[in-house]
Structures are given as structure tokens and as C-alpha cells.
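Check the record.
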Amino acid sequence: MSAFVRTEITPLETVTLTAEQMPASLADAYARVKAVVEKDAGYCAAWKVGGSTPPAQKALGIDEVFFAPMHEKEIVPADKLVPGFKTLSITAEGEVALRISPKADAYIAKGIDAVSAAPLTDLFDVWCVSAEMPSGSLTNGGDFGVPAIVSDRCGSGCLVLGPEHAYTADTKWTGEVMKTEQNGEVIAEGTTLDLVDTADEVAREFLIVALKYGFSPKAGQWVSTGGIIPCKPLKENADIKIYYDGKVELAFKTGYDAA
């Protein structure tokens, strides 16, 4: 039996892994994902980062973030039903996303040391609040650790991006409160200090880890840096608002378009 790797953009059937379906290593899991996404140019429009909070790293026994490439079809505008297409579940976590700058390509081409030393303002040019909405196919991925999670593209579902803000040397994250509100009720909250580092440094770490495993992120792609607001299930046909520092940055309605 071959090792499991997710081959569909949006799977609608669950998978329960056996030990025989486990990738040989984390590197093997990334290699299998890379082989899938290289066949479709729509992948890598954005990147989903996992393991970027202290509780997640402790639970998984890791000390670096992990990631998954997201398909352009998984990026959904807030003025449409979200996710719009059928998924296995509707859940959401509020995050901060950064867009890779045109200047970053030169550092990425030079490799890990160059990215590690680069000014953050050369790596990213825009940031926004995002709603990352997982919909994984594995029923027991957590039982097998990060290689299994990566093999499922980290449960990628869809990504909603809020209004863009210029990212500059003056952009700071100092504990701003973020909240998810469903039908007028706050269902989850966190602060921008709940990540293992500031969102821009988490995004830099993603670039380093991506290069380590043979991926080459590019200018214009988004990096959603992980759940500042814990992931919560959402109702269908619900009005969702994501607050950042007291202001609504994202508002959308959950649901599926008519097939």
C-alpha cells in the first residue's frame, strides 16, 4: 500500500489512515505533496502555515512551523458565499496574512541564509486579516503527527483575505485583540502575541522551511501565518465577522452555491 497524499483540491470523502499509509518521513510527505502540486499551476497562490502557536508546537512535539500550498480556487472573496463550493466542514480561524514582495524573489533565489538575513520589508509588502477555513480529509491525521497532516495539505479548505494594508518598517504587532463573531455572538478570540513570534517573523520562518523542503515561494503569493483566533465550527448561512483591534476587517456569509 502506497503512502497517502491528498490529490484532490477539495476532497469530499474522509480517509482513515493506517500505519502502512504513513509517509516515510516529513521530507517524504513534502515531496509527495510537491509532486501533486507541480502538475497544476493553480497551486501556490497562497500558503497555509501550521504549528505557529506554542500550544500547537507542544501538542505536536515540534519546534518549527509546517505548511501547505493552497490552490487559487481555495481563495474566496468575502463578497461571495464562503466557502461557496462544497467542503467536508465549515470552520474558521482568524489569522494575519502577508504577501510576498517582488524584492523577495532575489533573496529566495539565493537560499535560506539570504532569507534569514533579509530585511522583513524586502520580503513582504502587504498584510491583511484572513480567515483560514480548514476542511481536512483525514479522520485521524493528528494520531500520526505532522507528516500525515502535511500529506493532507494541512487540511486546506479555503482562505478569505481582508482589505490590504501596506507593510512597512512601522508595522508592529503588539497584542492586538482579534475576535470571530457568528450571528452577533463572539465565539473565539486571541491576540497577535499568541503566535510563536510576530506574524512577519512567522512568515519569514515559513519561507525558510519551504526552501528547506524544496519549494520556492514567489512574489505575489500570500502567507497566512496561523490561527491567532482558535479554529471554531461555523453554521451554514451564518453572518461572520472577524475583528482586529476593535474594527471589523472581514465580514462574510457562510454557505454553498447552488450546484
Remarks:
- The helical segments are 26-37, 54-60, 104-110, 112-117, 120-123, 146-151, 199-212.
- The chain has a mean pLDDT of 96.
